[in-house]
Write a structure and sequence with these properties.
Blueprint (H helix, E strand, L loop, with lengths): L7 E4 L5 H16 L5 H12 L1 H9 L3 E8 L2 E10 L11 E9 L8 H15 L4 E7 L3 H9 L3 E10 L2 E11 L8
Parallel strand pairs: 4-5
Antiparallel strand pairs: 1-2, 2-3, 3-4, 5-7, 6-7
Length: 182
């Protein structure tokens, strides 16, 4: 994967379940300030702490995780799974970007871009032809970020979590991956 003087990006293994759990738990704390019902947050929190769940996900051949680390420890991860989108797009072997998380204090420092570039290359190496994801319609920063990497909108879907409902946009792009010109 990618490695530079400060950032190491690598595929995760089942042995990394606690690291994935730590990052999931941290993302929960950052999301908690956004809103939603306490019951919904509690259900998500329980899933974040379930190390057996993370070990099973990491061992599942239909999905993979990529970790970003610095000397001090993990700073981000991406979770991908072979899955067809809910909106019709022209593809044969799609993969879903389920989650891309970078510690909030590192936003804008290139960690997310490095993770995305690495996961696109890994998806290409595994023979996928399209990558897709959903993003909350009001998350303008994430939408702009994905646009920089060639993602386009294919439709919307309602995302429900308990009593909370929101509209998510389905974004996708073709693979192979070519880095944007700087």
């Amino acid at each position: 994967m990618v490695q530079n003087k400060k950032l190491n990006i690598r595929l995760a293994s089942p042995a990394d379940a606690s690291l994935v759990g730590e990052l999931s738990n941290r993302s929960l704390a950052e999301i908690a300030a956004v809103g939603g019902s306490s019951a919904d947050k509690e259900a998500y929190y329980e899933a974040c702490l379930d190390s057996d769940k993370h070990r099973n996900e990491l061992a599942n051949p239909r999905q993979f995780f990529i970790l970003a680390e610095v000397k001090q420890g993990p700073v981000g991860y991406a979770k991908l799974r072979a899955n067809h989108p809910t909106v019709k797009i022209n593809c044969q072997r799609p993969i879903e970007l389920v989650r891309l998380y970078v510690r909030r204090e590192l936003n804008g420092m290139g960690v997310g871009a490095a993770l995305l570039q690495s996961l696109l290359k890994e998806a290409e190496n595994r023979g996928f032809d399209t990558i897709w994801l959903t993003v909350w319609e009001n998350n303008y920063g994430a939408r702009a970020f994905y646009r920089q990497f060639g993602f386009v909108e294919a439709g919307t879907q309602i995302q429900s979590s308990g009593d909370d409902k929101q509209y998510d946009l389905l974004l996708y792009r073709s693979i192979p991956w070519h880095a944007p010109q700087q």
